[in-house]
Amino acid sequence: MECARPGFGYKLDRGGGGPVKARTTVIVVCCAAALVAGLLLLRRSDPDSPPPSEATAEPQVHVTVSDRDTGQGWFLMVSEEIAHRTPPDDVADCRALHAWALREGALPVGDTAHTITFSAGRHTTIESTYVRVVPDPTPYPAAGGAPVVRLRCLPEAGATPPFPDPEDVDFRVNGDARPVTFDERHHVGPGSDAAFDVVVDLTGTTGPFAYRVEVGIAEGGGFRMVPVNGGDDVFFATEDGGGMGYWPATTTWTMNPTRTSTHCPAASDPGPDQQVGCAN
C-alpha cells in the first residue's frame, strides 16, 4: 500500500490551506491503513503464535513423578516387552534412564515422590497450595502389557537405591483421601517457575490402577482449583509384584563404568544358595 503517490489527485496550494489540510488528512488515514495491514500480515506470517489472552498468563500446574534422587538408583514395574527394550545411546545415567522408562510406560510403586510445578505468564505469588490424591476409575490400557517385571537402575554395581522415608509420606492413594494445604509461598512469572515435592504411598492395590492429583491455589486474595497438566491428570501405578516367597522377573541396568543390562527370570521360594539363570 502506498500513502503518497504521483497522480493521487491533490496538489500543494502554497497560497491556501484547503488542499494541504485535505492531503494531510488523506495521508494520515492511508498510513494508518497501511499499519493495520502490516500488522495483519505479520500476524498471518506467524500462525503458531497464540493470541495473547488472560488465560495464558494465569498460573498453570504441572505434576510429574519426581526424579528426586533417581541418579542414585531406583526401580519401577514394566511389561515384558518394555523390559527388553534398549534405551537410546545418550541415556547415560540413572536419572536419564528413569525419564526414558516413564515415557515408555513404566509404572511407579511404593512410596513415590511427585513434583508439583507452577508456571505463569505474569508475575504473581502462590500463597498456599491445596493438594488431594484420589483413586480414579480409568482402566489401565491393556495394550501396554501387564507390568510384571521389575526394572532397576544402579549407578554402579552394588549400589543401594534410596527410598523415601515412610514418615515423609503426605498422601495414601488407597487410604483416607484427606486434602493437605501447604503454606509455603511460591513466586512465579515468565521464565521463573517454582516447584515442590510431595510423597504419595501407592501401595494397597493389586495390579495397575489409576489415581489423580488435585491442586488448588490461593493467589491474589482468592482460591481456585487449577487443572493439572492441562486436564490430563490421570496417573497409573502398580504393586511391587514381589513378596511371599516370590521374586518377579528383573531387568537391571548398571550405568558405570559401562552401561550393561542383566535379565533375571521370576523365581518362587528361592533358596539362599539357589542360582537364578540371569543373562546379559
UniProtKB/TrEMBL annotation:
Region (Disordered) location: 260-280
Descriptive protein name: Uncharacterized protein
